[in-house]
Amino acid sequence: MNKGTVKFFNETKGFGFIVDAETGKEYFVHVTGLSDKITEKDEVSFDIEEGRKGLNAVNVKKI
């Protein structure tokens, strides 16, 4: 399980980006991959999964 910070999340469109705390990489996150409601600057834990257009954050939970 990875840890990071929500860089951006648009509730209306249902997507955003999470920055991994260790690597600094950005991962796309879709509302379907959320376990908790998130907003910008939330600290989260997440798994990474291969999506249609690259790696996505899934099982996203606030910590």
Automatic annotation (TrEMBL):
- What's a Pfam family in this record? CSD
Subcellular location per the Swiss-Prot or TrEMBL entry: Cytoplasm
The question of whether Glycoprotein is a record keyword is answered with no
Q: Which CDD domains match?
A: CSP_CDS
Which GO molecular function annotations are given, in alphabetical order? nucleic acid binding
| Domain (CSD) ranges | 1-62
Q: Which GO terms describe its cellular component?
A: cytosol
Main localization is: cytoplasm
Q: What does the UniProt keyword field contain?
A: Cytoplasm
Q: Which PANTHER family match?
A: COLD SHOCK DOMAIN CONTAINING PROTEINS
Q: What is this protein called?
A: Cold shock domain-containing protein
- Classification of source organism: Bacteria, Pseudomonadati, Bacteroidota, Flavobacteriia, Flavobacteriales
